[in-house]
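Friendly challenge for the regulars: who can give me the structure tokens for this chain first? No prize, just bragging rights.
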Amino acid sequence: FQKFQPLSPRQRLFSSTSSVSNYYNNPSDLYELPDRKLVDKILSVYLHSAFRLVFPVIDRVLFEDTLPLAYESSTEPLSLDQISAKSCVYAFISIICLFQGRVSEIPYLDSDACAQKAHYLLTDALEDTSITSLQAVFMLVCVRRISSGESAKSY
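First reply, four minutes later:
Bragging rights claimed.
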């Protein structure tokens, strides 16, 4: 038996042009993150809130290392690491938006749209088995459970 190896570009079932990014009018919209200053502000609010004690969904050091990769400017196609990093940022924004009503410092962001973009980006980077992808998946699961009405006790 051969060891499992990541699929090469020739072996992929879907090309990047057939991915879910085609559901957007402009596929680059999927990869365009909110302003970095806004994400930094959300991170600061999260780190200084009681919410982080109930939902410790990010590792501060890992996430602070993920941000530069997510916001790194590059020409397409993006690397799997960059796609995972962008997904992680969207997943983070989506979970933080769940408590924005209690924190007036955070402007309105559509948490459903952020979660959907994070999910779509993860489907484009299925081959990237990294801690960044795992962190994004964990946050998306939390968003799904919170938005479906499950209590924090079920975690």
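The CA atoms of residues 18 and 26 lie 13 Å apart. The first helix runs from residue 28 to 31. Your move, everyone else.
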